[in-house]
Amino acid sequence: MIQLKKYLLLFLVSLSVGANAQNTYKNWPDIIRKNDASWFGTEEAKKIAENVLLYQRDIGGWPKNIQMQNELTPSQKNDLIENKKSTKEITTDNGATTQEMLFMSKMYAQVKDERYKESFLKGLNYLFEAQYANGGWPQFYPLKKGYYTHITYNDDSMVRILNVMKEIGEETDFYSIKPSKEITDKAKTSFNKGIDCIVKTQYKQNGVLTAWCAQHDEVTLLPAKARAYELPSLSGKESAKIVLLLMSIKNPSPEIITAVKSADAWFEKTKITNLEEKRVLNDAGKIIDKKMIPAQNAAPIWARFMELDTNEPFFCDRDGVKKKTLDEIGAERKNGYAWYTDEPKEVLKKYASWAVKNGVKVSEAASDKKKTNFLTVAQDGSGDFTTIQEAIYASPSFPYEKFTIFIKNGIYKEKVRVPEWNTNLVFLGESKENTIIRFDDNFSKINLGRNSTFYTSTVLIEADDFAASNLTIKNASGDKGQAIALSVVGNRVKIVNCIISGNQDTLYLSGKNARQYFKDCFIEGTTDFIFGGATALFENCTIHSIKSSYVTAASTPQGLEYGFVFKNCKLTAEPAANAVYLGRPWRFYAKTVFINCELGKHIKPEGWENWSKPEAEKNAFYAEYNNSGEGFQPAERVSWSRQLTKKEAEKYTIENILKDSSKWYLN
């Protein structure tokens, strides 16, 4: 019997390449995105870096779509050397130049080869030279005849460049290479010019600001045509990253605020919720057909191309003739191009928080959903409530979407509890230094018996899918024994850019099979100040010891693959703290791992302590990989701890540690 080919109906348009790409590292961009920082110091990486240097032209840029990792023959190397002075096909399209600069930055972080630094700076200078006086960038520079001269937002080309300028201008740690003040000032100027260009190119439809086209004429700034099937139009895809960039700007100008407000309203107006894209694959996994299927209450999607005057979606084949439906164009373009996108959903998700943070009232044109999914807490009475707990009481139980409580600056002296029915709740502070939740319970003060510790928390999170950012959570009782600042029981909890402050037992992480994520946080305490049995990932955090004692006390249940994982963190201490252990096992099967962390001199050479539990030495898993600093002394560590191999360390990805089909940790 002939078996019919299976029709694989895949996902509601999760149409971003990043969401669907697998980390196989077979492609050049995948290699650049490797999570293992130490890999960029290997001989394999150095060999690839030689290729990247060869492909870079004297002008500073690179050609596109080159698999830099492929081995070159002597003849090919000679050809590249002879071609150094050529300026043909140098571009920022498809990530070219900006991605090679990132690779060189990651190389220089591991190997201080001055050629890597010089290469990065040449690339940066190329971006400076390529910028138009009006702030935009062409697709190719030196200019290539045709549509390539247009200001190019297509495939997020200009946004990528502006993100480079933003990181350099703000002197962040994103790039390992630190240019001179003259160059950072030049980057600031370049970024500001680029943002000005973005504001000026936002399209007005009957006098109302909307979105952007994939290309804009470099002189008139109006929407422009590219390839035959890329006609002047409003872009659902490219506009999304533009708006997210504008929303990332601190202290935005009135013009930027207007641009974001207008784009948000346009995304709300043009979203499609009655169609789903279904993809038909052959046995080899190749797309052989796409179908748009009617659906009720589908996840929102947007057309890649919309009419400039009506917002109506349209589709084109290589003949350049507009069609109203996807079915009307040939298979080659239909299946080989992204005609719909879900990228603007990130703008809609973040807009309400951004609006309140920037003193903007949520637009009257916004959906009722936005108006009802947001509360403000302010001690001066300017918000909906004056206490955080009141706002929690007013929040819906088990909402379908995120519900945000915006907390204005102030010191909120209250015990806060988020019960298990207040799922999908977000605490958004006005600033992490000045939005402070504090209370002063401790073991002795509570006096409820041997388990008094667990009643001491300033903030208790019992609900799943909770998130918090830009605030301080503090137990202010001082050094009076066990006193929790933040207790997390919920699953899929994400804490970003927060200060968590206390002494003993500052941060308690628990919950059955719970996974929790801390990013860009400052966490301080004395004894066992990060403790519990949850699986928790700490990324780019500062872990600060107030006195000589223990950082962690994990109680990982037997059978869990991960416990506490610290990646790219910095361990610091008060001057008096000069003998600190990385951890000790609260329970026998404790798991704690430090990867790519900087360990201060306060960390004891032996690293770990068994808490007078010889049994724990057999079952606990304490390990490190590629750490640095005076406190990293692998040869002196206790014999029952481990230094991971490269292969073992590679499994410690965010996807593996926090695995969940919703990928909540990315939102």
From TrEMBL:
Gene3D superfamilies: 1.50.10.20, Single-stranded right-handed beta-helix, Pectin lyase-like. GO terms for molecular function: lyase activity; pectinesterase activity. The keyword Zinc does not apply. It catalyses: [(1->4)-alpha-D-galacturonosyl methyl ester](n) + n H2O = [(1->4)-alpha-D-galacturonosyl](n) + n methanol + n H(+). Residues 1-21 form the signal peptide. Keywords: Aspartyl esterase, Hydrolase, Lyase, Signal. The active site is at D528. It comes from the Bacteria. GO terms for cellular component: cell outer membrane. It holds the Pfam family Pec_lyase. Residues 376-660 form the Pectinesterase catalytic domain. Pathway: Glycan metabolism; pectin degradation; 2-dehydro-3-deoxy-D-gluconate from pectin: step 1/5. Its EC number is 3.1.1.11. GO terms for biological process: cell wall modification; pectin catabolic process. Belongs to the pectinesterase family. This is Pectinesterase. It comes from Flavobacterium johnsoniae (Cytophaga johnsonae).
